[in-house]
Amino acid sequence: MSARQAQSTLLPPPSAAHSGPVLQVLGPMSAQYEGHDVPLGPPRRRALLALLVIRLGRVVPTTVLIEELWREDPPRRAVATLQSHISHLRRALAPATGPDRPAVLRYRAPGYVLELSPEQVDVHRFEQLFSTGRRFLARQDPVAARDRLTRALGLWRGSPYAEFVTHQPLADESTRLEQVRLTALEASAEAGLVLGRTAEVVTELEREVRQHPTRERLVGHLMTALFRSGRQAEALEVYEWTRSYLVEEYGVDTTAELQQLHTALLRQELGEQRTRAVLSDESPARAAELPGPSGPCCPARRSGWRRCPPGPRRPPCAAWASRRNRTVRHGSRPWPPDSPSSSPCRPRR
Length: 349
Prior knowledge:
Elements: H1 3-8, E1 22-24, E2 30-33, E3 36-37, H2 43-53, E4 60-61, H3 62-70, H4 78-97, E5 105-108, E6 111-114, H5 122-138, H6 142-154, H7 168-194, H8 198-211, H9 216-228, H10 232-250, H11 256-266, H12 272-278, H13 298-302, H14 317-323
Antiparallel strand pairs: 1-2, 2-3, 4-6, 5-6
Helix pairs in contact: 2-4, 5-6, 5-7, 6-7, 7-8, 7-9, 8-9, 9-10, 9-11, 10-11, 10-14
């Protein structure tokens, strides 16, 4: 079971005070009422609901919805078609709303508004738990911080709005939410390290670091957890792997903060206070400044590995291919782990 699957068991239900439909967008978009799925219709209608969800409680003008749904190729009767989709969505959500309650999808000039409590939409519950967790962490309450952040991350079932990549506002929101998720993961790992839960932190971060090597705060937390678990050789390997990736793909070195952490690790000075000072929440984040590499992963393909997906989540294949057969000292396994179940590049069958 992955860390994300394990966390899903901690998912708190919405408050009973807010009866009505519950929307889930942190993964395949779905709606439920009293444990039963609510049908949302064809892709265009689902995209319309998603566009309203990202502006929950705000009026979205009809002209904006038409432009975002059809871009440069709207139907001849665009307004009537939009109204038809709205009517179908309203009827789909009506049984969940109840006969004596106002509709959750309403017209309000000059457009439409989706009126749901934030607790009825998983993304808003995620951001509320994330904000609360960060506040607890700032107040040096790692137990409460870890609890809130773990519950926040447990709401994720996959990439948000992944089915709507052709709709730019939803693609942008998906990218933003993924960055927030990674920040929540970093904060949760920090709280876990303070509590001494190093094995949990290693399990949670190994796959994420492989997928997001430019998140150097994430890398630093994994190095710290490995070191405190008695796996210093692997912690050093993580640093060298990350540094090689940044140099080969972007021509840049690791940040001064990660270099300081590396030096402290070599000197056996990786105490809790030093780690918090080097990898604090205020440490500059460079991941967003580095574009995703492009082009085929030639070294990986030459060594019998599939081509990796393009974009920001593309794993560091050049560094991976050059190191995947390398064994670190003291008989430890190579890093990243060369397991088909966890490797982002999978061997050919």
